[in-house]
Amino acid sequence: MEYSFETQEVWHMSRALVKDIYLVTSTFPQEEKLGLTNQLRRASISVSSNIAEESIRWSKIDHTKFYEIAFVRLIEILNQLILSADLGFLSEATLNKLRAKISRLGGLLTALYHSTQKPINPSTN
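Request: output the structure for the sequence above.
Response:
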């Protein structure tokens, strides 16, 4: 049985980001295992998990909430990657590649988030 989230491009992109984050953090210093490595990995998993969980919710409010959480975690990842580059744990080139992927994923999440918003009814303004 295939679930609806498994057919979503946004979920596939989030899975790819998890893999990228695991590969990048595998090169971080050992003393970062409980620091940035753990934080980045958990946040990346949270993005894909929230996308998956959103797919089984029935209300637009829930859809909005899970897209918002996924987007917040995505920005958390970007911040932590910038800090990792500042600390010399990854190159600017790697940061820029990941930033581009995050930007594309963020754009999709933003579009999905806005698709769950109620349209404004001009007659009620």
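Residues 60-86 form the longest helix (27 residues).
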